[in-house]
Design a protein that fits this description.
mainly alpha, 61% helix
């Protein structure tokens, strides 16, 4: 008798020597990403006309670190930056890395399914020329 097994859909990221696993195909992941994206838009609009200050830089950095924690789990940003100064640009790079890796994994999964279930041209024509 054949047996069906669900595939492991987790994405394991190694960031600054720490491993974080997440289900990048779960709707909750994309809900969190969408919320982070909207929050970024809102934050940018809020800060648009304010002069750049150390406080604004720190506030923005904290905002991005909280977004990382929202995606990877509470305390993730503290682990990632445990040996570094929490810097806005590094935090942006980490957040971008998470999103890019999740998108790449999901694209590969979709491409795999499309290739598996889409016959090639010869198969569609029944092997005829």
């Amino acid at each position: 008798m054949s047996k069906f097994q669900f595939k492991d859909r987790s994405l394991t990221l190694n960031i600054a020597g720490h491993e974080f696993a997440l289900d990048a195909s779960a709707s909750s992941f994309y809900t969190e990403i969408r919320a982070v994206g909207q929050s970024c838009v809102d934050k940018a609009a809020e800060l648009k006309d304010k002069p750049a200050t150390i406080e604004m830089l720190n506030e923005t950095t904290q905002f991005i670190l909280e977004a990382i924690d929202g995606i990877l789990g509470a305390g993730a940003s503290d682990k990632i930056f445990e040996t570094r100064t929490k810097d806005m640009f590094d935090a942006i790079d980490v957040l971008g890395y998470i999103i890019e890796e999740a998108q790449a994994l999901n694209k590969a999964r979709i491409d795999e399914r499309v290739a598996k279930y889409s016959p090639n041209r010869a198969q569609r024509r029944g092997g005829k020329k």
